[in-house]
Records
---
Amino acid sequence: MSSSDRSGQEGVSGDLVSRVASSILNEPRTERLGEAALPDRHRIEEMVELVRHLVFPGFFGPRGVAKDELPAHVETLLSRIRAHAYEQIRSVLRYVEDIGPDQADNPLCARCDAESRRIADAFLERLPELRDALALDVQSAYDGDPAAAHTDETIICYPGVDAVFAYRTAHILHELGAPLLPRIICEQAHMRTGIDIHPAAKIGRSFFIDHGAGVVIGQTAIIGDNVKLYQGVTLGAKSFPKDERGRVIRGQKRHPTIGDRVTIYAGAVILGGDTIIGDDCVITGGVFITDSIPPKHIVRQKKPELVMRTNREASGA
Amino acid sequence: MSSSDRSGQEGVSGDLVSRVASSILNEPRTERLGEAALPDRHRIEEMVELVRHLVFPGFFGPRGVAKDELPAHVETLLSRIRAHAYEQIRSVLRYVEDIGPDQADNPLCARCDAESRRIADAFLERLPELRDALALDVQSAYDGDPAAAHTDETIICYPGVDAVFAYRTAHILHELGAPLLPRIICEQAHMRTGIDIHPAAKIGRSFFIDHGAGVVIGQTAIIGDNVKLYQGVTLGAKSFPKDERGRVIRGQKRHPTIGDRVTIYAGAVILGGDTIIGDDCVITGGVFITDSIPPKHIVRQKKPELVMRTNREASGA
Amino acid sequence: MSSSDRSGQEGVSGDLVSRVASSILNEPRTERLGEAALPDRHRIEEMVELVRHLVFPGFFGPRGVAKDELPAHVETLLSRIRAHAYEQIRSVLRYVEDIGPDQADNPLCARCDAESRRIADAFLERLPELRDALALDVQSAYDGDPAAAHTDETIICYPGVDAVFAYRTAHILHELGAPLLPRIICEQAHMRTGIDIHPAAKIGRSFFIDHGAGVVIGQTAIIGDNVKLYQGVTLGAKSFPKDERGRVIRGQKRHPTIGDRVTIYAGAVILGGDTIIGDDCVITGGVFITDSIPPKHIVRQKKPELVMRTNREASGA
């Protein structure tokens, strides 16, 4: 036994144990030990991977599936997706209703189970539509990036396609009424890609985010068709209205509306629930916008004056 | 055996082997083959996960722990955290002292072991304080984001909460004198979240970073209580003083000081060790600041003039 | 059997299965079920890890290798790297040539295999050069960051060193003619680090990216020696020339050229294929540049006027 193992075997002082235990009992915000029904991030990741196998079959998941084997392959995938979705939706619904593991006879249980089944089934029904939407997104990624050699490349390795795939999956679950789960799916994609899309945002067809790190699309943003964003773009809130007790008011439209065929270049920041960027606008890099822009305009900041001086520290200078 | 396996079995030319071996022997900066005591990133990740289980029990790690089982559960967790912490601290201390595996009788060994035990024990003692601090951070995350439905959501999936959890864990180890390990913990969180906080920065209570990708908080930054940052905020250095031989001087205060109740919006850049942002200031998005701001001020850049022209390429234009 | 399992066992409607199967058959862009030869992201990650073991031996991979064991250790590593590289290059070449699994007698197969062997062997030959380049990059990381305590720290946990390691590995494969694989390697590093370097970009010696989240270096960018970038820097394209049918023209120089000994601070955006930043320039934070800068100049934006007003909402104000 190494000394590091031995160190772990030494008793921890009873005083410390009871101080930590008290701190857990006395701080309900950070403790869910009795909670049987929290969503499981690994199972959610698995579910999203299975959806990816169905949306981009062969690119991800099993290959070498012959045409006559396809229905059986699809049935297996759908069945597994439904099992995962049902399990996780049921878990978040029970968690939201605060139903513990010892409450099998709670009438809410039966309602949660039925609701989970409804959402999981409806989610499956919308997978063909999800596939259609992502085929258009993939085409936009290829059309919008001269560095892409083929649409395949965008499916295989573009973070923007990954993030939009996760958003569209999560958004369907959000529309069907699943709480929390959509947010977790989007935050897992955020972690992978640096692209932060709230699942409640509304995004049209043929959407592409290039590079993408630092993009933030807020909860109440609305985006039209054929929109292209670059890295670092924020569609955010100006400031939050507060109630008379100083608490932020939740649920209002706080994020902008973007029309069809709009391109927004790197680092542009567009804020406010009343801000509308009209169809066919181009917003150039780094622009800071808090007012609406009429359709068919190119907006740039007046070129800031550059100040140049000789670099005296330069070698040989 | 497939041909790709066969390809791997073919001999590699002896000439290439000796050129690579020479390049390893001749370049001490990139080689630590004889080093027995480098920190192990997977073990460090495990340690951080165990701390997460203790700080947010039930949210992460085992659930369904009854109240009367709590002390035993806590004792097991503390014991495992200490074993991991002891092992990794001992490893970095031996590495810093350059003690090889064949030096069991080196008197520094005993000192490293004692020091590791001291730091690991002191780290455990500070875990209740870590829990208290994070409960306040979680409350700030909920209070500061209208999109959060519950404090739970911020614990389960907010990258800002994850990054601050990792920072506070690492900062305690930094204060206790553990080298390198705190930096690795923060860089692992940086990789997960896009938020780069140096473990030596000093950050007050009730701290929240929303969205977070691209945030950089430098080594000598000081941040007060109730501060909120958005994505892309940099608290950085202006330029580095160099010694007479042109080498950067390390260890000076190079990063700003932020007062209490300050909000800094997306993409603002605040630079310099002498720069102080006073209490109750609001720094709006994209502002570039290299001088101090007195308390209770809202700072924004003069709105840059927007230049708009018709988008003639727009369809139908 | 739990009810969630049961839910998964229920039959999925035959109608849904056939709608999904049709949507797969009718949308060739998102389906590669018959493709035997797509690159495998997990195997590519393994390959990159093996290269990392060779470039930074002991820091990553096995330790405690004695000097007389080094040649055998190196030979094993080289052999495994070649096997992985051969396998993945062969896979992407067959995929690009659209050779299915049932075409063993296709004459292109033999050509792909020979080409894969050529590239894998040439890649191995260039590993000493890769090691040399990365030793200089590591030195630059230490020299350029006052927060680094030792070059080791930059190897162990700097995302900038990780991203440049992945780029240099991928760039060699790109130069040798391997399609797709280099892009996947760079995008995997992008996911880990938030730093997006296209493998076709040309980058000189002693290159350092500090912090790094949000950095984008485009496909046709050219960067000299001793260049340092900070987080959020974009070396991007101005706009894309389109052909007479409105399709973007691929393969033109669209990204800037950066001279030797240039430093570019956080968030600076430099765009355009004709834009040349001369040797010994310093580009300060947030500058937006679309024109060339002569050598030995420091460029900053004219300090934008700050507007300050009292924060009446501040507590006590």
---
Amino acid sequence: MFDPKTLRYDANGLIPAIAQEAATGEVLMMAWMNAASIEKTLASGRVTYWSRSRQEFWEKGATSGNQQVLVEMRLDCDRDCLLLQVEQSGPACHTGRRNCFYTAVRQGDEVEIAKPMT
Amino acid sequence: MFDPKTLRYDANGLIPAIAQEAATGEVLMMAWMNAASIEKTLASGRVTYWSRSRQEFWEKGATSGNQQVLVEMRLDCDRDCLLLQVEQSGPACHTGRRNCFYTAVRQGDEVEIAKPMT
């Protein structure tokens, strides 16, 4: 039986969660969860983070419509990081891009490698 | 010009870094970097984390031989998370598995979904 309380959280009770598009392997974003948001995510099947800035649950896409449906939750060997296999609707990034990692370091410079979805 | 000092670090001066196999999209592991380890990684082309437990640089594979060669470093929109495209030799996980996320939550139970490489 999986118990979210058995994970290793930081001093603020948070654990980093990586969202990866299940079908393609694209890494979409990284955000934070607490034990309660993990329980919500597993119960609802919709990925629910903990917003550090707003100090509240953040059900991804609840306002934007760009939901993340949970396909599978995985833990790492140290139980201090989560990998979420998801199905992302539309952009995962608040900038409108498909994923948040659209800035690459190439030859010492920052290069924008993806544009917002239209 | 990319300057590691412009990233957003936590209270300990650290930033999470996700390592992804460049050729396949497999998420291998997540560990932490500081500004100096980012500089070392970019200069050497070999991924160098900061070990929180040992409080020292941790050049991945320096002792095990299971190196991570950097293909490309990417930043997220908030500049507080890195995605490293790498070429991993052998297992990335200290358990001998290819990646650290070998435990899945399925029907409420923890299931081992990968075995150590032989």
